[in-house]
Amino acid sequence: MGTPVKIYKSSDTDAPQITGGRGDVKKVLKACLVAGYGTAATRKEPLGWEIVAGTESADGFNCAFRPTAADSGKNIIHIAGANTLAVTLTAYFDTDINGALVNPSPAMAAMPTFKSGGVDWMVVGHHKSFILIIRIRTAPNLNEPLGAQGSALFFGEFENRINNPRGNTLL
User: Fold this and answer.
1) Cβ atoms of residues 125 and 32 within 8 Å
2) Residue 67: is its pLDDT beyond 90?
3) What is the 3-state secondary structure (H, E, C) of the chain?
4) CA nearest 7: which of 119, 122, 98, 140?
5) CB within 8 A of 68, min separation 6: which ones?
6) What is the arithmetic mean of pLDDT over 145-158?
7) Can you name the residues that pair with 123 across neighbouring β-strands?
8) What is the pLDDT of residue 148?
9) pTM
């Protein structure tokens, strides 16, 4: 049997929006993974992840998240969101005794986060994995078919039938 997932969208009531501000994508991930959003009947509960202690920058643009599930590998995704046009995401596999992120993945991902036409987003996830989809709305023209562009990022664990959860993470 599969794992149930939750769906979060920019069109949800009280959902955080990506408007081109620094840290916008971090706010979206924080809402979906850690804090939730909305009230009463429109409340969307978070996926149950946590912010890695000491990683949320004072300016609010950078942060690292990891799943809290006891059966997860606790791998970490760090978001650097100081740029208004894109964010950089890096996977880490541990923290040192002082809480600093260590053992980064050699692969990083950059995602576009703003265009004057607007931005839509969706997060689909569960307690150990999520996919973030960003759709940048644009005016239709010859260089941008269908009037939209964007990107998607999967982060988290996947089942590979080998008993090694720390090695089963994708970014």
Assistant:
1) yes
2) yes
3) CCCCCEEEECCCCCCCCCCCCCCHHHHHHHHHHHHCECCHHHCECCCCEEECCCCCCCCCCEEEEEECCCCCCCCEEEEECCCCCEEEEEEEEEECCCCCEEEEEEEEEEEECCCCCCEEEEEEECCCEEEEEEEEECCCECCEHHHEEEEEEEEEECCCCCCCHHHCEEC
4) 122
5) 48, 49, 50, 127
6) 72
7) 8, 132
8) 55
9) 0.84
Closest Cα partner for 64 from 171, 164, 149, 159?
A: 171
Location of structure tokens 């081109």: 20
Q: What are phi and psi of 153, to 5 degrees?
A: -135, 130
Q: If we measure between CA atoms, which residue out of 35, 95, 29, 38 comes closest to residue 62?
A: 29
84's CB contacts (< 8 A; 6+ apart) are 20, 21, 22, 113, 114
Strand partners, 135: 120, 150
Tokens standing for 136? 């940048």
Location of structure tokens 């990683």? 55
- pLDDT at position 164 is 55
In degrees and rounded to multiples of 5, residue 26 shows phi and psi of -60, -40
